[in-house]
Amino acid sequence: MIIFKDPHKIRQHLESLQKKGLKIGYVPTMGALHPGHISLVNQCRQTCDVTLCSIFVNPVQFNDSEDFKNYPSTLESDILLLEESGCDLLFLPGETDIYPDSSFRNKHYELGNLEQVLEGKFRPGHFQGVCLVVERLLTILQPDDLFLGQKDFQQCKVISLLLHTMGRPPRLHVCPIVRETDGLAMSSRNLRLNPEERALAPQIFKNLTFLKEHLREGNLTQLQKEAVSRLETLGFKVEYLELCNTENLDPLNRWSPGLHGVILVAAFIGKIRLIDNLLL
Ligand code: AMP
Questions:
Q1: Residue 66 sits in the same domain as residue 170
Q2: I need a surface site. Which of 56, 68, 162, 168 has the fewest CB within 10 A?
Q3: Residue 50 forms part of a structural domain
């Protein structure tokens, strides 16, 4: 695996590969890699000639400075993991490579309702920061294909919207959520859970599954209330637990068979905020 820090050098290298007709697939990450990230690398390797990964913890997308300060960093083991998984190229930019001056941070993206609901509502400015970094990374790297995880369902919708505004957008692949054996969605933030919190964390997925299995026409509100109340009794602080339309994430008040819905949840255990979702 070749590691690049300099945006100009990696651009040159990628250009030479693309001139040879090779298809570049790209997996953006913030590091603290786990098998969920590696599943994206694997999907990329199956689809593209060259697999490119980046690690950059983007300060601009953190609405909570403590969360940014405490974001886990495991660079050495990340590099080993990527090498083992057959990743070809790793881009490790610094903050000034991504944001050379303040003009790079000042763009505003029109995200409509997507920015008002769920993560958008509870993490003001988060998706603006996500768009800034993703547009910047895509401009530097110009991959043919882009691999994102369904784990961040709303982020996939936001980035898909962003790609529609770009000149030569990569083809988007959304990869399934990888879970621990007890159902907990893998996440870099899981590293920060203490043993008691880690033992409770799978309850999030258990409640999503319970809701999906028991959903009938007319009982959505009741089931939602029950799931939130069960989680709160266990000590979670639930920010949202909602059934939404998969296309635009508009909340749904009723469920009916055949409907394309997704149940999304965000909840704190202690200081750690976890998100998960389940397609119906
Ligand atoms: P992050 O490093 O958290 O920004 O995540 C980088 C990419 O990995 C994003 O596209 C995430 O959606 C994806 N990802 C994170 N966790 C998982 C998971 N458990 N399963 C599949 N993809 C994931």
A1: yes
A2: 168
A3: yes
The alpha carbon dihedral of 77, 56, 267, 207 has a sign of negative
Overall domain count for the chain: 2
37 is catalytic: yes
- Confirm or reject: Cβ of 45 under 6 Å from ligand 1: no
* Distance from residue 110's CA to the centre of ligand 1 (Å): 24
Q: How many CB atoms are closer than 10 A to CB 84?
A: 11
Q: How far apart are CA 76 and CA 73, in angstroms?
A: 9
- What does the pLDDT look like over 67-84, one tens digit per residue? 999 999 999 999 999 999
Cβ 40 under 6 angstroms from ligand 1: yes
pTM for this one?
A: 0.98
Interval between CA 158 and ligand 1 midpoint (Å): 15
Rounded Cα distance between 247 and 133, Å, is 23
The closest residue, in CA terms, to atom 22 on ligand 1 is 149
